[in-house]
Amino acid sequence: MEQSDISDDLTTILVTEQEIRDKLAELARQIETDYAGKDVLLVGVLKGAVMVMADLARELRIPLSMDWMAVSSYGAGTKSSGVVQIRKDLDADLTGRHVLIVEDIIDSGLTLSWLLENFASRGAASIEVCALLRKPEAAKVHVECKYVGFDIPNDFVVGYGLDFDEKYRNLRDVGVLAPHVYA
Ligand SMILES: O=P(O)(O)OC[C@H]1O[C@H](OP(=O)(O)OP(=O)(O)O)[C@H](O)[C@@H]1O
Ligand code: HPA
After folding, report:
1. What percent of the chain lies above the pLDDT cut of 90?
2. Taking 60 as the threshold, does the pLDDT of residue 76 lie above it?
3. Residues 6+ apart with CB under 8 A from 162
4. Predicted structure pTM score
5. How far, rounded to the nearest angstrom, does the alpha carbon of residue 155 sit from its chain's CA centroid?
6. Cα of 90 from ligand 1 centre, angstroms
7. Which pLDDT score is estimated for 42?
8. pLDDT tens-digit series, residues 145-169
9. What is its EC number (predicted)?
10. Can you state the angle between helices 50-59 and 17-34, rounded to 10 degrees?
11. Ligand 1 neighbourhood includes 149 CB (under 6 angstroms)
C-alpha cells in the first residue's frame, strides 16, 4: 500500500523550515541583547511550543533555564473554547525571575492573556512573550508580545508543533490545513 504524506493535507505552505530558522536566529540576537547580564527563564507552553522552544533555546548563547507549562483551550477542534485549563504547572518559582514565555501561536490571544495574568501574580521580575506566529485578524484580546516571528492570515494552520487533533505537529513547515480534513 502507498504511504500517505501529511504535507498532502495542506493547501498552502505559509512559512518554510528555512524561514523559521532564519527568523529564530534574528529573534535570538535581539533576545541576547535585551537579556545581557540577566538569567532568563524560558517558559514553553506545551505542547505546541516544543519545536520553537527547542530551536530558539539552541540559537541563544546566553545562560538560560527552561520550564514548561501545559494549558489547553482548543480540545479537538479548530476553535478556542475560551476556557483555559492547566494540565501541568511550572516547576520553577517565578519570584524575581526574568521570564520569557515561548509560544507557537497567538490566535485569539485568550491563552496568553490568561497566562500573563497568572504569571504576574507569581512575583516575576519581568515577563515578556516570544511567539513564532500571530494572527492579528483573530485577536479577541490584546496581548503585548515583544518578539513576534510572523503575522499570518486568519486560517487554521498546522506544522512545526501546531496540531489538528494532535496530528501534523511533526511537519517541518507551517501550512494551512485543507478544509476537507476537518470539515
Ligand atoms: O491565542 P489562542 O486562541 O488562545 O491560541 C493559542 C494557543 O492555542 C494552542 O494551544 P492548544 O490549546 O491548542 O494546545 P496545544 O499547544 O497542546 O496544541 C497554541 O499552542 C497556543 O497555546
Ligand atoms: O491555527 C491554529 N492551528 C493549530 N493550533 C492552534 N491553536 C490556536 N490556533 C491554532
Report:
1. 85
2. no
3. 48, 104, 105, 133, 168, 169, 174
4. 0.94
5. 16
6. 17
7. 98
8. 999 999 999 999 999 999 999 999 9
9. 2.4.2.8
10. 60
11. no
Which residue's C-alpha cell is 506545551?
46
Asked whether the predicted pLDDT for residue 122 surpasses 70, the reply is yes
Would you call 107 a catalytic residue per the annotation? yes
Give yes or no for a contact between 147 and 31, defined as CB atoms under 8 angstroms apart: yes
Distance in Å, CA 172 to ligand 1 centroid: 18
- Please tell me the residue having the least CA distance from ligand 2 atom 1: 156
Tell me, in angstroms, the distance from the centre of ligand 2 to residue 84's CA.
Answer: 14
Domain ranges of the chain: 17-155
- The verdict on the CB of residue 118 being under 6 Å from ligand 1 is no
Whether residue 177 has its Cβ less than 6 Å from ligand 2: no
Topology of domain 17-155, per CATH?
Rossmann fold (3.40.50)
Residue 174 CB less than 6 A away from ligand 2:
no
With residues binned 3-state (H G I as helix, E B as strand, rest as coil), the percentages for the chain, rounded to 5, are 25, 30, 40
Q: 179: which 3 cell numbers?
A: 478544509
Looking from the CA of residue 111, the nearest atom of ligand 2 is: 8
* Residue with grid cell 494549558, as numbered in its chain: 71
Kindly give the number of the ligand 2 atom that is closest to the alpha carbon of 156. 1
